[in-house]
Specification:
The protein is an alpha/beta fold. The protein is 45% helix and 15% strand. Bound molecules: zinc ion. Zinc ion (ZN) binds next to loops.
Length: 203
C-alpha cells in the first residue's frame, strides 16, 4: 500500500502554530527514513530560507503552493500568472529545485476552475489533490484526533492515498510519529507524489 504524505508549507493562519514546527516535522521524517512531498508557499520560503532549503536537502519532493496563498479563482489572469511566477522564482532560487510540475492550489480552490487549471498548465503545473485530510488546520483539532483520522482515512482509502497535512499546526507535529508508526505497521510504503505519478521534478 503506497501512501504519499504531503505537507503544505505556508504562513500559518491559526493559533496552534509554535515556531519550530516545520523543523520538527522534517526531523521526524528524517528519523523515520520517510520521504514526503512539500508544497512550498513562495512567501514562506522567502521568510524561512534555511528551513525551505533543509526540506529540499533532506530529499523531499518540492512543489509550489503559490506565492501569496490567495484563493486563485479570485485573481485576474495577470494576477494569476504573476503569483505563479513569483512563487516559482522564490522556491527555485531558495531551495535550488524547480517546483514544476507539482502544485497545490491554496485551499484546493480552483482545482476545477478551467481558467485556473489552464493558467497552471500553461506554466507547466498540475494541481495535486488529496484523498485524506484530518483537518489539521482547524483550531479545535488535537494530536490524537489528527493521528486517528489520518490513519483511519488512509487505511480506508488504501493504495495510492495522498494525505494532506500542514507544516505549522502543533497537533500535526505531535501526531506525525504515531501516524508513521501505525501506517508502517499496517503495511504502508511511503512515497512522494512523483513516485506515485511516475515523474520527478524537472530541475
Ligand atoms: Zn495552504
Amino acid at each position: 500500500m503506497r501512501v504519499a504524505l504531503t505537507f503544505d508549507a505556508e504562513h500559518p493562519s491559526r493559533s496552534q502554530c509554535p515556531s519550530g514546527a516545520a523543523g520538527e516535522l522534517v526531523a521526524s521524517l528524517a528519523s523515520a527514513g520517510v520521504r514526503a512531498t512539500f508544497f512550498i508557499q513562495g512567501r514562506w520560503a522567502t521568510a524561512y530560507p534555511l528551513l525551505a532549503r533543509s526540506v529540499a536537502a533532506t530529499g523531499h519532493l518540492i512543489g509550489s503552493h503559490s506565492h501569496f496563498h490567495a484563493p486563485l479563482p479570485n485573481l485576474t489572469d495577470r494576477g494569476l500568472s504573476d503569483d505563479l511566477e513569483k512563487a516559482e522564482t522564490a522556491v527555485w532560487h531558495i531551495t535550488g529545485v524547480d517546483p514544476r510540475p507539482w502544485f497545490r492550489c491554496p485551499f484546493g480552490d480552483g482545482a476545477n476552475d478551467p481558467r485556473v487549471v489552464g493558467a497552471l498548465a500553461e506554466r507547466g503545473y498540475r494541481h495535486v489533490p488529496w484523498s485524506v485530510a484530518a483537518s489539521d488546520w482547524e483550531d479545535e483539532r488535537t494530536a490524537q484526533s489528527v493521528e486517528d483520522d489520518t490513519v483511519d482515512q488512509t487505511l480506508a482509502f488504501g493504495d495510492g492515498a495522498i494525505v494532506l497535512l500542514h507544516t505549522w499546526p502543533a497537533p500535526t507535529v505531535a501526531a506525525l510519529p504515531g501516524i508513521l508508526k501505525r501506517l508502517r505497521l499496517a503495511g504502508a510504503q511511503f512515497v512522494t507524489v512523483g513516485e506515485l505519478f511516475g515523474s520527478r521534478n524537472r530541475g
